[in-house]
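Entry:
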Amino acid sequence: MSEQASWPLDDRGAAYGDGLFETILVRDGRPLLWDEHLARLARGCRVLGMPMPAEHDLTLPLAEAGAGLEVLKLMLTRGSGGRGYRPPAFPAPRLRWRLVSFAPDASRWRQGVRVRHCRLRLAGQPLLAGIKHLNRLENVLARREWDDDAITEGLLSDEAGRLVEATAMNLFWRRAGRLETPGLARCGVAGTLREALMSRLELHEVEVGGEALMQAEAVWLGNSVQGIWPVVRLDDMSGKVCRRWTLGGLHRHFQAEAHGVLGYPTPDAF
C-alpha cells in the first residue's frame, strides 16, 4: 500500500468535509474511466469553488502502480484556512492519495447479491447532487442499518420515496423492455461507470419509487471498482422478502456491456 502523510488538524476536509474524492480502478498502471473521473472531479471543483488540480499532479501516484488490479483513491480538500465555515478567499487545495491492491469478489458477479431497502432517506440538495464530496454521513448511517453479511447492499430513496442509489453503488433495472436508472437531479452520486454506460447504451433516467423494482425483469448494482452485481433478492426494511430474480440472459447481457467497459470477465467466462 502506498499512502501519503495524514492531513493536519486544521484541514477543511477533515473539519467540514470540504472537499472531493475519486475512487479509481487501475489495471496494470492504467486508470480506467479516467476521463469520466476527471470530468466529475472538475464538476465538483466548480460547485465547491476550488481550483482543479493539474492532471499531471493527479497522475503522479500511478508511477507507483504495479501489475494487476489496484484501487487509487484521490482526496482533494480546500486545504487549511478561513474563519469557521467561511472558506479562504484564495484556497490552497491539498491533494492526498492512497493506492492499494484489489481483488474483486467474482462470486457476486456469478451468483448475484441480496439487497434491502434502507430506512434512511436521502435529503435533497440539487447543488451537491451528482458530485462525490467528502461528507458521506448519510451513507454511513444507512450502512449501519444492517450487520447481516448475507445482505450485500442497501437501497436508498429520497424524502419523497423516489429511488436514488445504493449506499456505495448505482442502481439499474430493466422494466417493460427498457433499461432504467434513477435520476440524480436532487441527490446521489453520478457514478463514472453509470456515466460511461449512459453514453453507450439506451439507459433512461426515471423518477420512480420502489414499485418499479417490483415490476422489473432484472435488477443490477454497479460502480467503477466492483463492476456489475446482479440482484437476486430484495428485502424490505424488516428483512421480509419483497422480490426474487433468477439469473438469466437479461442479467448477463447488461453485465457483459458494463464489464466490457472495465475489462472485467464477461458472463461466458464464468
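The longest helix spans residues 34-48.
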